[in-house]
Amino acid sequence: MAWFGRQRNTFARGIHPPGHKETEAHPIRRLDFAPRLILPLNQHIGKPAIPIVHKNQEVVRGEPIAKADGLFSAPLHAPATGRIEKIDLMPSVKGPKVQSIILKVYSADDQRVRYERPRNMNTLNGSAMIAAIQETGMVGLGGAAFPTHVKLAVPEGYAIDYLIINGCECEPYLTTDHRVMLEWTDDLLAGIAYVQQACGAPRVLLGIEDNKHNAAARIAARLPADGNIEVRSVRTKYPQGSEKLLITVLTGKEVPSGGFPYQVGCVVQNAGTVALLGRLLPRTQGMIERVVTLSGPGINKPGNYLVPLGTPMDYVLEQLGFNGSAGELILGGPMMGTSVASLDVPITKAVSGILALTRETITQQVDGTVYPCIHCGRCLQACPLHLNPTQLGLLAANRDYQAMQDRYHLQDCFECGSCSYVCPANIPLVQYFRIAKAMLREQVA
Amino acid sequence: MSSVANIALAGSFMASLGTLLAGALALAQRRFHVDEDPRIDQVEAMLPGTNCGACGTPGCRQFALTLISGAKTPDECTVATRDAAQSIADFLGVAVGDHEKRVARLACAGGNHVAKNSAQYKGMHTCRAASLVGGGGKGCTWGCLGLGDCADVCTFGAINMDATGLPAVDAALCTACGDCVTVCPKQLFSLHPVSHHLWVACNNRGFGNAEEAQCEVICNACGRCAMDAPEGVIEIRDHLAVIDYRNNALASPDAMERCPTGAIVWMQNNGMRKGRDAKKILRRAAL
Fold first, then answer.
1. CATH superfamily of B38-92
2. Is B20 exposed, middle or buried (0-12, 13-18, 19+ CB in 10 A)?
3. Taking the complete model, does pTM exceed 0.80, yes or no?
4. How far is B210 from chain A (nearest CA, A)?
């Protein structure tokens, strides 16, 4: 640990949860098509997409089935050849039912992508590239599902110095970005060139955690000779993959509170997102599948799978074998992912992993008793944003949400959960903060 | 100088300083005195002093001010009893007002003996926290989670969780302060005058067998209530019966008699009545 100032290749504080990267040596394999795909219209942050198909319409794999509603939205493409069964409310990860397109897959079809054409990538300049990226329906695959083209459209008056490719994947269990960087290296480098073109960044920094040396070495060996792209190893620590922390680690700049990366001349993209863009853009294809890590003690055949969007959870579990007593299923990683309450929930663009925990593993580790806060300050030593979770937690217990926002910077918290992880009293701090944010959102509305 | 003289000097100095400043304060009090309506204090003393805000003012003193100015009537304090409101009205020489008593109503009847859970929630024992984890694990994503945030927040003890895990509102104690309305993460509470007898105790916007399998008292949008009620009282919107209370005078219990699930009910005198065609729920234990 550095004694003064910044630490090398990492940020101050944070935690070291067990890595559990059991699937990192499993090559990406394709998962079969489920008989029925559920495609929510709001798989991204922003306005839901507008369906452009009707009931009983036949669609081919890759065909657009919903269009973007304005700039802050993303279109949807049919992940399989089949027939639209209906457009109806279906369960979502967050809970409330959402409008979804339900696609019945033709099982006899060979499921080739029929809706694509080669594109000359050299003719695309900045804004045309951004439009092309929106057409792919691409969103941030790290988990937030922020539309990629919105991030790349830098507001006027800001110059971008660095494009930062986030290959940290600091969440335990998840290995999708790792495998993508290893196996789709050329697509990743092609994608970097496209994204660089779109946002106009002269230099590219690739931040990769030092537990993925093989991926870093493979990329470094294939870098173009002009030296604009630099692969940087960062220390394995949670939450190293947080956008704002990675910017600070790689460039030394700090994104202002409530601000955006472009204000310090940076654009951050997840490595998996860029690699998939590198595959889709030259073929004028939409996003129809993504790499998902399926892991955890509850799964018989863990690994990294290329899953068609909309595949329901129960189908995935059926294919991979769910053993043990029904425990808990988490979409995303164990730190920031959400438990699912229904097996009808589909794989969406935002889902980077499914973690299946058995009842035994949960009861081993979780003692539900919550003890009073003794002000030990461990959460302060864990919070990567230097917030004061102790004080925030006490205010939350008193339901003083306004003070949390006004005096303790609640809105800067990105809910990494480090404070809850280290709390010796089992106080569900991050849950308190999520409740507080939800209450404040409702007050505004 | 001797120490006794020192003490005497210091003492007399402090005493004279004290007298001087006290005189200044007495003068200022007289000089800057503000005449205040003595009735404000008296009316405030007659009000319940809960500062709940249900009347629409920030607290009881503000309400006393609006009473004296005549902008509000005493019965708009929903906490004070009718007698207390009457005595304030007599004291001020104004009419007590004819505002109707309002109560909080829950748009869900899916207790744990009729509604299924798709997953078991473990964690902080509040509805708010549960609703953030996959919606809380109830089969009906619109329905009451039954962890009692409303009962906790109710200052007046008017909400109690019943045996089936649903909040029961005691109309006699409810002051319509609206705290339960704000706290419920599923937005199931709303405030209604007691004369709104006809009530849809369901908020499910889904449709079809899958939804009906999750809860036995769901409004399945069959539309019989809309057919049986006079024109303009009930309509089916988003697969849910919606009552237009502007035509409340026309509403009668006939509208709910043929409801097959008993989702639409008649609320009167702190109790609720289901129609004759409502399916009988025999189960008492949790599913």
1. Electron transport complex subunit B, putative Fe-S cluster (1.10.15.40)
2. exposed
3. yes
4. 10
